Automatic annotation (TrEMBL):
Region of interest called Disordered, as start-end residue ranges on this chain: 136-156
Name used for this protein in its record: Molecular chaperone IbpA
Keyword annotations of the record: Stress response
PROSITE patterns named in the record: SHSP
Length: 156
């Protein structure tokens, strides 16, 4: 049984969260469709993450990793090899494209392929302007500075 959530009430009472609701809607639709290749997402630190994908049989040249804004795209495509006749083919080598939605200020640090596992290191870097800052409490009144429009009138 599949449950789908209706986000319409949230659209009516919130502003600026459209992207979040779209992500949730898309995740519901794609959950059953996209199951290969298997992957893990690991939080390795406060602002550090790792995606590990099982891509057995793929070489570095067969994989393509791209970050476009807030989306990480991992593609894999192997060239067909004609080395005899397969009596059983259990190792999946089909082409794939896996997309990961990234939060703001998350960037890819590096990627490596070892023993059939593709590891992609991610880091969230919050700009200084968005970090919490301590506000000092002063005992004197702040000096009034003229507004930019008033300052331009005084120059003219």
């Amino acid at each position: 049984m599949r449950n789908e959530f209706d986000f319409a009430p949230l659209y009516r009472s919130s502003i600026g969260f459209d992207r979040v609701f779209n992500l949730l809607n898309n995740a519901q639709r794609l959950q059953a469709l996209d199951t290969w290749p298997p992957y893990d997402i690991v939080k390795t630190g406060e602002n550090d993450y790792r995606i590990q994908m099982a891509v057995a049989g793929f070489a570095d040249a067969d994989l393509d990793i791209t970050q476009e804004r807030n989306v990480l795209i991992v593609k894999g495509q192997k060239a067909e090899q004609k080395e005899g006749e397969y009596l059983h083919r259990g190792i999946a080598g089909r082409a794939f494209e896996r997309r990961f939605e990234l939060a703001d200020h998350v960037r890819v640090e590096n990627a490596s392929l070892t023993h059939g596992l593709l590891s992609i290191e991610l880091k969230r870097e919050i700009p200084d302007a968005m970090k919490p800052r301590k506000i000092a409490i002063g005992g004197s009144q702040p000096q009034a500075t003229p507004l930019q429009i008033d300052a331009e009138k005084q120059v003219a």
